[in-house]
Amino acid sequence: MSDLSVIKSGSHPLIKHLVQLRTCKKYRQTSNAVFIEGEKVIFDLASNHTFEKLIVVEGATLPPSIRFVEKHVISEQNFKKISGVNTNSTLAATLKKPEARTFKSDENLLIFDRIQDPGNMGMLVRSALAFGYSGVFLVEGSVDYFNDKTVRTSRGAVFSLPFQEGSLQELLLLASKNKARLLIADLEGKSPESITKDANPFYLVVGNEGQGVSAKIKNKGEAITLATHPHVESLNVAAAGSILLYLLQHLLQPENSIEV
Predict the structure, then answer these.
(1) Which spans are transmembrane here (predicted)?
(2) Residue 46: which of 99, 93, 98 has the closest Cα?
């Protein structure tokens, strides 16, 4: 392994593969792999995963605790090409893409209704995992769960929090089948503290950053909001959603909430 030659050509098949993996959802699906960039997220994942490919910048030191199938050393210029961002990191990797799953009737979920910003999605996924949610459902039109920025901002939580993708109608059928309450994050909603507690699971729905939650979902659920200072118009999706994720778990199902 220590005698690997450095990949310096930008047209090398591996470099092309990694760029495609980072930029194209369809390519990730057909390759059944996900691109990961940055020491922090790779170190977070290393304790529970063996990477398919580990990509190291020429001259960088590799921690001995990281497990991998293949190791490749590339030039700094090629690393900038595969990462797509200005970064000082020296590590990238690929992991097998997790399979989607169908959720059971006793699981609380986070629902993404056409969320577009992968940074918002990543932060919310990390919060949902931290506060004990069972998974996420992505309504068609949402940014890819394994977008490289989603992976990075979630600190790899997308590999630990199960997901399901589907149409708006499939979401409504899932909620009906599981007798789940749809709780809609909305500026015109009521206080989370006013929601009646019951034994049913609940799905917190966060909507598109510009358009909010679809009317068809709103009509089936209860709108909730956070009271804020009058000088603050609203919190962004990631901030408000993270607070609601904690509050709802704590208020509606305290036996499942995380003690702080």
Answers:
(1) none
(2) 93
Give me the residues of the chain with pLDDT under 70, please: 1-3, 254-260
CATH fit for domain 13-96, picks 2.60.40.60, 3.30.1330.30, 3.40.50.2300, 3.40.50.11540: 3.30.1330.30
- What's the pLDDT at 236? 86
90 burial via Cβ count (<10 Å: 0-12, 13-18, 19+): middle
| Whole-number Å distance between alpha carbons of 138 and 18 | 25
Displacement of CA 38 from its chain's centroid (Å):
16
- In 10 A of CB 202, how many CB atoms? 22
Judge residue 213's burial from the number of C-beta atoms within 10 Å of its C-beta, 0-12 exposed, 13-18 middle, 19 or more buried.
Answer: buried
Q: What is the CATH number of domain 109-252?
A: 3.40.1280.10
Residue with token string 């940055």: 38
- How much is the pTM? 0.91
Q: Would you call 6 helix, strand, or coil by DSSP?
A: strand
Please give the pLDDT value at position 195: 87
How far CA 130 is from CA of 52, 124, 146, 243, 245, in Å, comes to 26, 10, 19, 12, 10
Length of the chain: 260
Helix (H, G, I), strand (E, B) or coil at 74: strand
Domain ranges across the chain: 13-96, 109-252
Grouping H, G, I as helix, E, B as strand and the rest as coil, residue 256 is: helix
